[in-house]
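re: ur question from earlier - yeah i can do the single chain one, its not a big deal. heres the input i used so u can compare w yours
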Amino acid sequence: MTNREHAAAPAAGDPPPDDEPPGGVSRWIPGVQVVANYRAAWLPRDAVAGIVLTTLLVPQGMAYAELAGLPPITGLYTSIFCLLAYAVFGPSRILVLGPDSSLGPMIAAVLLAALGSAADPAQAVALASMLALMVGVLLVVAGVAKLGFLADLLSRPTQIGYMNGLALTILVGQLPKLFGFSVDGEGLIEEATGFAKGVAAGETVPAAISIGLLGLVLIVVLQRWLPKVPGVLIAVVASIVVAQIFNVADRGVGLVGALPQGFPPLTIPTISWSDFSVLLGGAFGIALVSLTDTISTSSAFAARSGQEVRGDQEMVGIGAANIAASFFQGFPVSTSGSRTAVAEQSGSRSQVTGVVGAAAIALMLVLVPGMLRNLPQPILAAVVIAASMSLADIPGTARLWRQRRVEFSLSIAAFLGVALLGVLPGIGIAVALSVLNVFRRAWWPYQAVLGRAAGVAGYHDLRDYPDAEHLPGLVLFRFDAPLIFANVRVFRDQIRRLARSDPRPKWIVIATEPITDIDTTAADVLTQLDEELNAEGVSLVFAEMKTPVRTKIERYGLTRTINPEHFFHTIEDAVDAYRAEAGVDWTPRPGRR
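and the output i got, formated as tokens:
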């Protein structure tokens, strides 16, 4: 049985599915339940999975810290404390949190806006810690307030476009480091231009290119064809060996250098009020991306292991992880799909895996802080570029083109927003496009004139059944949305066109089953419309109206204008009533034989 199959069908000794959330203290501190229910038989697998996970946590943590514009060591501090906090407050048995490639550019953009390009590393760390604290508080408050639905503010098409733009931005931003030089530029265009000029001016370092490209190829090839082999670890170890044998530092290749020994002191993040608004705006965007990523990742893994996603508690867990990291020179974190997959494939049974990983990193910092001093900087760039390639979803974009051009356009707009305007404006554009797409569907919903099709029960759209029969003088009309202020004029104008068609109808029956709400603005327009149609000898009739909507109709007083007898339980009832009144039968549509 494969690991994937093992996860999909829990065997004896696996934790029971979380079908019901725990009560009492365990509801808000799931780690209590883990300790209470933990089985000794799980420890060997959790320990092995934690050690395997560490081989990914260390290089990725350092690489993503540099991606965020911070010293590499902060990535390790962040990994330790976010893993420990999520083990206590996180509801998922399998999710792995830590520095993330999708958040790195957002953090860098916030720091750049607050400090400028010539930032002092200590100041950058202080601001990043405050940013993590803000993100954590926002997520905890949102979780307690049960605002997990905020993850829906990023629709799948705009999320694909945003991630594609982010992948391109990360890749271009890391190319100079991969080639052994640096570029002063903000945004995709400036960085791409700076990289091209640097290559043309001969600033590249051949040894750096060789190490970086070979490391990138090794990571990508192993991830693609041998996913169970730790490609990142192999690339890191191989590059350190090469750096020592060939003394690449003398050939112009930058090295990570010795890391500080031990841990940073517990520090309460503080900033000046002038930086508060900049950080708060970035914190909202980072919290939204982190939440969306976590909910989607947890949903995917929960479906495979029989768990139930507890979105509000996930927000509390992520928030607690960010807060814990903020007190030890950390920066904002999110869920990692790749690291979670590694933990699952390695046999992880609980969050003890994350605790083992945190302990292993801590031991490395205390006992052997110089272990990574000969790690070449181009390898960190290769790790980030490999991660950026996994962010992009080209097949998903192509699928949108084939299936729904409007959503493809939204995806491309989000992509261009990130690529051309920057990461933070890009997330704002992505959210705005998602919300506008919802309103677009409410403003201009699908509408249909219905008829009776031969051999098919019920009444159907004439565009699908152009030969469907009709009753002379009767129009069956369906409006597929709640009737609200934003679309009631679209509804009114369509009813007017139907009322003035040739031949003129006597009844216009509205199939109201899709209309789940009517607000006061729509009620006023309906009153005016009914009076207008009555003056022209046309009756407005309603069928299949839901009870809550009918209650609102009566509360608004519409039945004083609209004939109460013109409300029918079903379309069939309305058709029978009209046939009895008009004495007509079904006939082919005009122009049809």
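The chain has a mean pLDDT of 87. not sure if urs matches, ping me
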